[in-house]
């Protein structure tokens, strides 16, 4: 790019000079006139100044426009087109990451493993990359993959909130609904409060939707009632539209005076309480078996027999062989 004018005995930048004479060097904040018209003569600092000019914004812009003149190609448009292509590829890879997480979540498959390399999520993406060159290229880069644990959790939270919004909208469309709730301790000994809503949809069909588990520090009726009211407020569901309540027979839930059902009735008098029929059936069967010695003994024998067979691989194999033989006959 450096030329020497023997008449003026000065050095000039051929690229900057050519582009400037064409009248298209207009966007740089500082045009270096010494390399365009006046000419460079400070030979003591020549090498240093040449390097500074080569890295300047003026020279870089001139190079792009010089190439554009020679090839008759709009460089700015080419750069913009390449940027758009990269954006499309990045968006496509992100959608594949989201769809992979959605698939694992819907199928109930654990996302992570003992290590990230052996996780179901990474293995699924590696499998999909065999049919996608852009995904294969994306996974091979060292950073900015959008695959960290934090991003996985964020994507899953966004998807779960989207599902909840759709479910809640269905409840709002139905206007009136009933609430179903229960509390129990999980394996970590924490109290988990499950909450469902029952309603009739536009097709005159009954739907029951699960709206989540919620932690509870206490199982008193007041605390559990506050949790229910907080859930309804969070989903913008009015208590005035409650037409039913369904809990088990625990005193804190179904108590006539201080139970959850009594407290909800004070807020909405049309929210009638119904004892959970499944829980009722369980109590009836249990009491019936206790009252009949034959039933109780039979169930105990069956339980002991199951344990006897399962405790020995040899006995289990014999049992399976006998079962299959009887099926054939």
Architecture overview:
Pfam families: DUF4371. Residues 35-259 form the DUF4371 domain. InterPro entries: DUF4371 (IPR025398), RNaseH-like_sf (IPR012337). This protein is an alpha/beta fold and 329 residues long. It has 4 domains: 2-71, no CATH class; 77-142, no CATH class; 164-280, Nucleotidyltransferase, domain 5; 292-328. It is built from 13 helices and 7 strands. It has helices at residues 14-21, 46-54, 57-71, 75-107, 120-129, 133-140, 149-174, 221-234, 251-254, 260-267, 277-291, 293-310, 313-328, and strands spanning 2-5, 10-13, 177-185, 191-200, 206-216, 242-247, 272-275. The strands form 2 sheets. A 5-stranded mixed beta sheet has the order 5-4-3-6-7. Strand 1 and strand 2 form a beta hairpin. Helix 4 packs across helix 7, helix 5 (120-129) crosses helix 6 (133-140) and helix 8 packs across helix 10. The longest helix is centred in the first third of the chain and has 33 residues, at 75-107. It is elongated. The relative contact order is 0.05. The model has no long low-confidence stretch (mean pLDDT 86).
